[in-house]
Structures are given as C-alpha cells and as structure tokens.
Amino acid sequence: MKTMPNDLLIARLQSHLALDESERNGLAGLPCQMRSMPGRNLALAGKLSENHVHMIIEGYACRYRDLADGRRQILSLLMPGDVIDLRQFVLGGMQPAVATLSVATLAAIPNASLFRLLEDHPRITTALWSTTLVEESISREWLVSIGKRSAIERMAHLLCETFLRLAAVGRTEGARFPLPLTQSELADALGLSTVHVNRTLQELRKSGQIAFQAGTVEIFDFNALAAQAMFSPDYLHLREMPLIGAVPA
Amino acid sequence: MKTMPNDLLIARLQSHLALDESERNGLAGLPCQMRSMPGRNLALAGKLSENHVHMIIEGYACRYRDLADGRRQILSLLMPGDVIDLRQFVLGGMQPAVATLSVATLAAIPNASLFRLLEDHPRITTALWSTTLVEESISREWLVSIGKRSAIERMAHLLCETFLRLAAVGRTEGARFPLPLTQSELADALGLSTVHVNRTLQELRKSGQIAFQAGTVEIFDFNALAAQAMFSPDYLHLREMPLIGAVPA
DNA sequence: CGCGGATTTGACACCTCTCAATGATGGTGG
DNA sequence: CCACCATCATTGAGAGGTGTCAAATCCGCG
C-alpha cells in the first residue's frame, strides 16, 4: 500500500500537469536514496546531501524564520511530495531555514541524474518548476490568510489547503489526514498564539466541523469548512479536484 | 537629473550583483518604450503589452488579492526598478493581479531583445533572476511582519524596507523618499485597518521617528526605526548598504 | 466654491494575547 | 509495573491591541 518514492514524485508532478508514459518511466528510473530524520524540530541545515535534491516522503517539515526576540514564523509547510531544495538546484541562492515537524523520511536524488532526465524531457522541467510556482502561490495565500482572515478562518483555511495537498498525492483516507503538529507550531504557522489556536480548534470541533486528535484531522463537511474559510482551491493549481464528501464508508 | 530607464534597470541589477562594462552596455542598448499609466488604482491586467517585459520607472504599483467579501490584501509593493512580469517571461503561468498605486510610468522591453541579450550575457540572466528571488524573499518577510510584528513594528519595518529599496536605485533624497500611498492602501499591505494605520503613523510622528506628509516620508533615525521594527536588511540581498544617517546637509 | 476622497478623532466592542494554573499524555528509569 | 518528568493540551481571568462605526475636518480638484 506504500507508494514508492518515485511514484510519489510522479503523483505530485501529475497533480499539476499530465505526464506521458515515457516521462513517467523516466521519473520512475530516477535513483533515490532514502534518508530518515528521526525526530521533530530538527533543523535540516547541513543535514541534506550536497548535490542532491530532496523530497519529503513521509512526515512534515517547514520553512521558518526566527526573530531576534524569539518569536518564530513558519513560512510554509512541507509535506509528502514536496521538494525542499529545488530552487537551489536551479538557481542557487538563499532560502530560509527548514526543520522537520515530525519524524520524517526524505528521498535524495542526485542532481546529475535529474539533470540528465530533464535534458530528455523538457516537460518534466516544466512540471518541476510548476511545483515551485505553486509553493509561491501558497505562500501568497498565507499572506492573505494572516493579513485578512480571522483566527477561525485561518485555521479552517489551513485545514482545507492541507487536505487538498495531501489528497493530491494520495495521502488522505477519506476525509481524514495526518497533521502531527503541535498547537504551538500551528500557532507559529497561522500567526496566532498557542492558547488561541487551542480555543479555535475547540470551536471548530464543537461546531461539528472537524475532529482533530492524535495528530489526525477529519473534516466532516469540506464544502462548509471551505466556505467559512473563503477557501477557493485555484491557487493550488491542481489539475483535478479530489472527490470530496462522496466517500462511501 | 532623471535617470533613463535603462540606467534604472542597470542600477537595480547592480544593487544585487556587480556587472561589468560590456554587460552594462548591453543593458543600455536595450530598446524600451515608455508607457504612462495615468492614475492610481488602475488594474494592469490586459494593459501590458504582449511579448514585453515591464519595469516600473516612476510611481508605485502592487500585487494584490481580493477576497470574496471585499477585503483586499496587498501582496507586494512594486517600485521604480522593479520588473513586473519577469516570471511570466520565463516560466509563464499564474501571477496575482497588479494595479498602480499612483500615476506611474513603465518601460516595456520586447521579449525578443531581452532574449538576445541574455544569450550573450549569462550573468545578466542571473542578475534578473536574483530580482525575482529578492521579491520572494521580501514576500516571506512580509509574512513574518504580518504574522509576528505589532502594528507599529510592521509600519516601521515597511518604511525601512521601502527606504532601502528606493535608495538602492537612487530614488531617495537624503532620508526622504516618496510614498504616495493612501492610509487605506497601507492598511491593506500591512494587514491593519485604516484607522489603526492612522494612529500608528501618528505615534511614529509624535515619537519623532518620521515625518510623513504629502506622500513623502522622512526617516529621522533609520537605525532606531530599524531596531524598533527588528528590521535586518539581509533579506533584501543588497550588495552594499546605502549610507544612512550621515547625509551632510 | 462645492464636492468627494483622505485623514483624523472619539467611543466602544471584541478578538486575540498574556500570564498562570491545571489536566492529559507519553516516554523513561528505577 | 509504576512513579516521575517533560511536553502538550486545556481552562480561566484579565489586559490590551486592533477593529468597527460614525462623525468631523482637511484637502485637492473640477
């Protein structure tokens, strides 16, 4: 039942852009070495292999920024199928710090192999780039969330977003998905205080919109939640919407 | 005293990466057509020439996102030297809406000419790319601001940032620079209400940190303002810091 | 001169934060 | 197997920052 790392990459790329069989085969042939990060809250700086590109296979990570006085802002959530260091691969340069948010396993793909593949398959280049564009797009949506949405809207929005991102790579089960984040980590992502995250979650639970326990979220009525959050999925640039709601028991 | 459009582009690129003379000459030879946007709050969608890349010469614009219920979030400020549609030029794809925030003049450079130039000068490609990376970096910093900084810190931070960005392209005069934004536009950028922007500005004025009238800001003590905002300029990736404070009368 | 948008001011509500204490939970060592 | 400890979740009380509503003033512009 476990997808192999290459399949995950294929699924992720295809969620944005359809690939043909030769392209899929090329991706499937990519050598990749598994790498397991044993714990949560591990900074990845220096822990990634030089000359490799890394994708998250299992677990969560984040990009973040620390302020001088200890406040932290999580800039983006990285989840299975996300490539961490694609931008450096092509452009080099600066990127914010990355840390795990759970035990996680990464796949490391040698730059050289990837380069070779991209020479033969320009559309894979496009597909890879589109993942970075989607990441930017998500980042802008977070700006909207934090700037303009209320606490409960922000939380609802994040849950909708995460659900669809995971669904796109087959990591949801019906309306449930893993979200092993601490309330304080959610707070740092949403620009809220820990206490308020707690109250916000309670409100969503009490109103019957979600369940959230033991690192697993269940969304009872996605459309209602999306409406409350003013969530519209365009910015995720998914080729097709996962089937929502109509999940037979 | 007015810099020509090509000089502005050169200045902007050199603010991040030094160029040699042949590269500067190449840029100086780029044909570009001036385009003036007569008013504020003009959506640029459809108003830009196809197959051209546009740079702001004078005035301000912004990327923004509107929510269903009328709330608006300004995602980034575009100012002289900023290229609006560089990403589409290379990657195509989706970008948020752009609107002017003042009367503005743009320069339109034909894609073809730019392509030709880049073939001869790979470092110009790098320099251009780095402007998009800086834009992303600024965007992340905004996320930190809105997520973690107080109203007064946010405002101070935006003023510091804007000052340095303008200084990098020679658009400041001493400690003064143009900022012809409405308080309500500042509010949309900072994730605050108009009224609170007003009070925040008053506080900064009363504490003697800035003057702000008739669309012009003056920063009396940049370092103090930066300290209050927890502003550290690294994220702007400027090659050299403009001289601050020590501006002889 | 009068109009419309922008700024300013006031009063008030309320969302969210902070501080603090109390319960859960899970892992660890005795 | 249980006591213990750290971390996380939850709850309460209160303060304070920020938003909303509304009105007044200012200002540029036609």
From TrEMBL, chains A, B:
Q: Does the keyword Aminoacyl-tRNA synthetase apply?
A: no
The residues that cross the membrane are none
Identify the InterPro entries for this entry.
cNMP-bd_dom, cNMP-bd_dom_sf, HTH_CRP, RmlC-like_jellyroll, WH-like_DNA-bd_sf, WH_DNA-bd_sf
The identity of this protein, by name, is cAMP-binding domain of CRP or a regulatory subunit of cAMP-dependent protein kinases
Share an example GO biological-process annotation for this protein. Answer: regulation of DNA-templated transcription
A GO molecular-function annotation: kinase activity
- Occurrences of domain HTH crp-type (ranges): 149-223
Q: Kindly indicate where the leader peptide sits in this chain.
A: none
Q: Which SMART domains match?
A: HTH_CRP (SM00419)
Q: Which UniProt keywords apply?
A: DNA-binding, Kinase, Transcription, Transcription regulation, Transferase
Tell whether Transcription is among the UniProt keywords. yes
